[in-house]
Amino acid sequence: MIMSEILIIGGGPAGLSAARELKVQGADRVTIIERENEAGGIPRHSDHTGYGLRDLKRVMTGPSYARTLVERADTAGVSIRTGAMVTGWAGSMSAEVTSAQGREVITPEAIILATGARERPRAARRVPGDRPNGVLTTGQLQNLVHLKHQAVGTRAVVVGAELVSWSAVLTLREVGCATVAMTTEFDRPESYAAMAIPGRLALRVPIARRTRVIRVIGRERVEGVEIEQIDTGRRRVIECDTVIFTGDWIPDYELAQSNGLAMDPGSRGPIVDTALRTSREGIFAAGNLLHPVDTADVASLDGVHAARQVMRWLAGEQAPLTAARVLADAPFTWVSPGLVRTGDVAPARDRVLLWSSEYRAFPKVVVRQGARVLSRRTLPWPVSPGRVFRLPWSMLEPARSSEDIRISLA
Amino acid sequence: MSYDVAIIGGGVVGCAVARELAGFDLRIVLIEARGDIGDATSKANTAILHTGFDAVPGSLESTMVARGYELLSEYAKASGIPVEPTGALLVAWDADQLAVLPKLQEKAVKNGYAKCEIVDADEVYRRVPDLGPGALGGLTVPDESIICPWTTPLAYSTEAKSRGVEFRLNCFVESIEVGSDTTVLRTTSGDITTRWVVNAAGLGGDVIDRMLGHDRFTIVPRRGELFVFDKLTRPMANTIVLPVPTEKGKGVLISPTIFGNVMLGPTSENLVDRTDTSTSEEGFAFLLAKGAALMPSLINEEVTASYAGLRASTEHSDFVVDCDRDQRYVLLGGIRSTGLTASMALAEHSRELLAKAGLVLVARADLPAPAQMPNIGEAFPRPYQREDLIESDPEYGQIVCFCERVTRGEIRDALVSPIPPCDLDGMRRRTRALMGRCQGFFCGAEVDELMRPDGDDHE
After folding, report:
1. Gap between the Cα atoms of A95 and A10, Å rounded
2. What is the pLDDT of residues A334-358, one digit of tens each?
3. Which of these, A273, A275, B70, B406, is most buried using a 10 Å CB contact count?
4. What ipTM score was computed for the predicted complex, to two decimals?
5. What is the CATH number of domain A121-247?
6. pTM of the model
């Protein structure tokens, strides 16, 4: 048994599964710091099914998935401290924790950052107009409806048409708010088919494609949104009393950045290698902090992977020295992991994850290292905005130097 | 029932006047059309505590800003209003602007401020390394500071209330009848009889003035749109970066904010609608283009918020301040963005004008202790950072708004404060809750619940 404390920042799927796995692997003290009053992360307030398939091998609702992960971590002997927040760093390996118990500094042997991601709110998307009540993100909407049982309006426009957007539509329907339109800047209907949510087709929501939101209208309460068809420039106003800005994920990267970790300009998360090591020895990262956003079960399996690598590191195993940056050309906007070390472990689930701003059916993917082509393959699944594109690790595995690895579409 | 003084307008100036006059044996009422104090021009400005270095020498504005700087700096220390001495740097981007710097330096001296220095381009970049290319030189203004624009009117009004001033919120003045001894204000919540009237109605100042039979100025609401960037950009702007003023106005600045963000703006656009605080496509495009030249590295960073404020500009270059002895009426009109800095001086000036016109002022010996405002600025420890506070009351350790680190204790305090918030926006101005990078993604529902009187967590 390794007699040391391992600190996990964030009690969502990645953090909970990492913590449990650490205990399973024989770690002594594992502590999760969770700033919300309850652990479980975003699935807690996503009250629809579709969770748990990849990690727990069964499908359940978000809240029961969250509860199950918490119970499993708890049973394994993880100390879950809720209502406690890491508010800064007292040193590179010293987390400053604030809670009702006061202020303390925890200096563990290893840290796993699992702070997750959030949706960009309206302001961050630089949408002008009035600033009335009724403008929400999916996160805020689901918090209001599922945790606080509040009503919203009656006519909503949902900005975005990806997985989370449908989740917002379902939540709105539950509280009697009709989605009068969804808008997406993309043009391929395939890009919405991220996952079969039961009843998606039955929802019958009109989708305005290649459309952006020009402004929000309404002084006290939302009265409408003005939208523009990107290709024709034609503008019109949709009357509504609620606007939900969905998707457009950004990791909660502030703790990673303020620690001084090397950051990926594409995803804005910390750069990690296939063992989920960050640029600082002893600090690992997992979940949607690295790939905003993949599904909860993928984040959870990331956590398991990170935990195993932490144990190997605590046992004295060193990272291979030869490391190459992984970069992705447009239309990809980020790739994770961002670093590959020659001879290192395979990444979580043997997958490299990418995000794209364009749709491509049957994408022909080329992986190069310098002038050398490592692999070239046409994949049967599409590259699609609004969802993670997964590349088999075997396509990068032949990398053997510190030269940059580039992933591009032919 | 009759009042000695009725102050129309609960912005930063009206609240300062209320606090000042309440130091004397007077019955005072403050009338505010909106549901909260400081809810119009006072809430959306550049939040700078000005030295007045660039005012028009000899103007009332110049005198008021210089005196106000002194008074408010002192008062801020006593009452806990967050102030951060960041200094400012005017940056010249072309030969004409460079040539203006010595004149600005002389102007500053005429305004009683002698500490400006001209610096070369190297020094400009040493001070602000993230500035875009092309700066030719600059002028330093070491004493320009940033101040919390929200705590300031709250401090004044909190203290005014403790001194016995009555606050009538959601009260709109519809007409005014001046009699021989008293004046009757006909309002949406009934008649208010008073001997003296102070008009600090900001964007409605000319309307009130006309109700009293005058026709001496017209307010043109001048919209200023601003971007607030993520706190991680704060190291890019450790000082206020000012443009060299031209005929077109003061131009776009980059400034640190008292809450640890970076602000870019304002635009300057005359509107007709005095209530239109929407932001615009054109305004955003203008700011982003300006910002890209001023500080290219800033523009690609995350935007936390954007907002627009309306300044009460008039056809006059100076404040429009006057006292009518016969009408027992003081006008504080056309108070622009410098009003925050000038507020206490304008209050002092009003008191002098009133006294000269015959209002008998008897200083009170029984004044309560000055207001102590909660610190919502970054220059001093916030409640969540204070071990002593959390130990005495664990609710100061329970962070509700993660981005801004606002605790349950602070939200609770705001709800039971002398001037409590009437909505989420009011809560934001008192605690910073919901004003962070997630804009409520995590805490919006929680704060909303705490605000509800029937909520589980609020007695």
Report:
1. 13
2. 999 999 999 999 999 999 999 998 8
3. B406
4. 0.93
5. 3.50.50.60
6. 0.94
